[in-house]
Specification:
Blueprint (H helix, E strand, L loop, with lengths): L5 H7 L6 E7 L2 E10 L2 E10 L4 E7 L5 E8 L3 E9 L5 E6 L8 H12 L10 E7 L3 E7 L7 E6 L5 E2 L1 H12 L27 E2 L2 E2 L2 H9 L9
Antiparallel strand pairs: 1-2, 2-3, 3-4, 4-5, 5-6, 6-7, 8-9, 9-10, 10-11, 12-13
């Protein structure tokens, strides 16, 4: 079972409020971070190949025991398998991030290579691809240029065909019409976009109202760097 070397990390890390240590070896970049949360000290390790948009991440507890692991692309988009472990190293949860998407990022990569000449697995290509599942699965593609506006379009995650933006706008409006912004955190809004008086509603996230207890439970399920506790 993978283990985090806390002593070695503390000897090399720098920082005041959170400790950070980064090194490169044989073309592989390792970024380590330590932070104190309400739930205790957590250590994070992100590993990627140089110039790659793909990375694996590992989360360890205060004793250096592996507790969570997963993979990402573009720093914030989960791919592959997400797993959680108990203090004895037994896997207690496994989720397949690919289940909702017929076409994977590898499939989309091939499409964009053919149509745009861009490799989405290379972080020097000025290309970003985000996937979502809002009633239907899609990939949102952003192609940046130096001399003209950014190109953006949707690809259906089942067929790879382009989808009109109006389809996703109509879909999102049904679930997020009560939000000032789709990413609004910490403030609840009514359907007319006015602040609600209900103090039992904690934050609003991804079109859903959370109570304080529900929000804290949801945050615990996330990698530590995405928590907003």
């Amino acid at each position: 079972m993978r283990h985090f070397d806390i002593e070695k990390f503390k000897k090399n890390a720098i920082g005041k409020y959170s400790l950070n240590y980064e090194y490169e070896q044989f073309g592989t970049i390792t970024k380590q971070t330590g932070a104190k949360l309400k739930s205790g000290t957590v250590y994070q390790e992100n590993i990627s190949k140089k110039h790659s948009t793909l990375e694996d991440w590992y989360e360890y507890d205060e004793k250096g025991r592996l507790r969570k692991t997963g993979s990402m692309i573009f720093h914030d988009n989960p791919i592959g398998f997400y797993r959680e472990y108990d203090e004895n190293g037994k896997m207690i949860l496994e989720e397949n991030e690919e289940e909702k998407y017929k076409l994977s990022y590898t499939d989309i990569r091939e499409i964009i290579l053919k149509t745009e000449g861009r490799d989405i697995f290379d972080n020097r290509q000025n290309t970003l691809v985000i996937r979502e599942f809002v009633q239907f699965a899609y990939y949102m593609v952003f192609i940046s240029y130096d001399d003209k506006p950014t190109k953006k379009y949707l690809l259906d995650a089942s067929t790879g065909e382009k989808v009109d933006f109006s389809k996703i706008k109509k879909t999102e409006s049904k679930s997020t019409s009560h939000l000032k912004s789709p990413n609004e955190i910490g403030t609840a809004y009514s359907s007319n976009n006015e602040l609600t008086a209900d103090k039992n509603i904690y934050p609003v996230y991804d079109g859903r109202y959370y109570t304080k207890a529900e929000w804290e439970e949801f945050q615990k399920s996330l990698p530590w760097w995405k928590r907003i506790l």
